[in-house]
Amino acid sequence: MRTPLLAAAFSIALPAQTSLLKNPDVQGSIRLFESWIEGQMSYRGLPGIAAGVIHDRGLVWGRGFGYADLASRTPVTTRTRFRMASHTKLFTATAILQLRDAGKLRLDDPVSRHLPWFGVKPASNDDGTITIEHLLTHSSGLPREADAPYWITFRFPSYGDIQRTIGAQQAAYPPDTRWKYSNLAFTLAGMIVEKVSGETWADYVQRHILDPLGMKDSSIDKPVDGLATGYGRRMPDGSRQKMDFMDTRGIGPAAGLTSTVEDMAKFVALQFGKGKAGGAQILAGATLREMHRVRVLENNWTRGNGLGFAVSRIKDKVYVGHGGSLAGYKTHTYFSPEDRVGVVVLTNGDDSRPAQIAEKLIQTVGAEVAKAARGPAKPKLWNPAWRRYAGLYRSIWGDTEVVELNNQLVMIDPASDDPTDQLRIEPQPSGSFKLEGPSGGASVGERVEFIEEGGRVVRLRVGQVESVRVSK
278, 280, 343, 407: least buried by Cβ within 10 Å? Predict the structure, then answer.
């Protein structure tokens, strides 16, 4: 049975983003993506999908596909509300970092400093102390869930229930042993937000995150108008079970948020912010970059975790974001800090595979938006007089060859196994040079100087290390 496709489509772009939306390559990528999604909707019988692409501080494109409710044939739009599930963890992590920046806690604080009753049984007799950072990076070793079968009964425990039962639970691993996803860990982080701030977790998130960002259509664990109906996976006969609204109660800090594409676009745009915190810039740019940096790798090294955020490497691009799963709803976000481009995909079907959709969206529309935003490639800054810097330089640490290649100076180690292993000597607007390369090794980022005496180049200085020129 096919679900009817699109009752109504809705596209949006903020005024500052309209030039990107008008770019013919961006338009072509949108048509390609829409065609693919409509095929997915039809052949897989999916209920509804809302998707959006963000660049820098605004939503470039967004659209709803299918239906928020199959019975009433209510179309999905970019303001249709979806349960965000585990995306909520990003908001809990944001709250913790706000409190850290305010000097009210430290990431290396033991959890028991703020929650004296916390006393999970250790995994072994030499376990270290579980800290707040362990909670945010899924490196605490704690069980995935509190001690209750709420993913079967959909009756979620209160904070009091969790506090009463946690002493009977045992950690699966010692902290810092490996990455292990845990809703319980973020529940505890939410409790710490309450203890330190003096506000309920929901009130804190509302007042210090949702309100300043203007996320007016978002809410915490309450039925709201405009909420898409959640549907289970499609069964062999084509039917889908309709899922009732569920209040995640004490698990709220890990799963309780409801939001929209337009509101989540504001949260993604926040991640590209710079400068000090204030107003809608609810975290300093430096803190945001700290949250996006990998702190824990999965044992297979394919992905990792920052502070709240998941970090993935897909086709040589690094994406930051998160996924979410609550009965009837599946969601995913990806963003590229380098390109300042992000995507949001919200769905109301348990078999919608939003991570796949988000990956294809950022690799098609997102990639073309990033390309259009960069504009035409700037011509390389090149002065033929710089050819005099080419030559072989030697120090006690080894030899360095500076070569002119395609109107650019590059640096290689002539003793290396690979002549393509090059570092670029980039001219700076100030007239100096800087060493750049694909990794942070060697002296990447350091100032490069060519020292001349008597009209000839005699030495090369990279950072604080000098080499003597041994060839013309």
Answer: 278
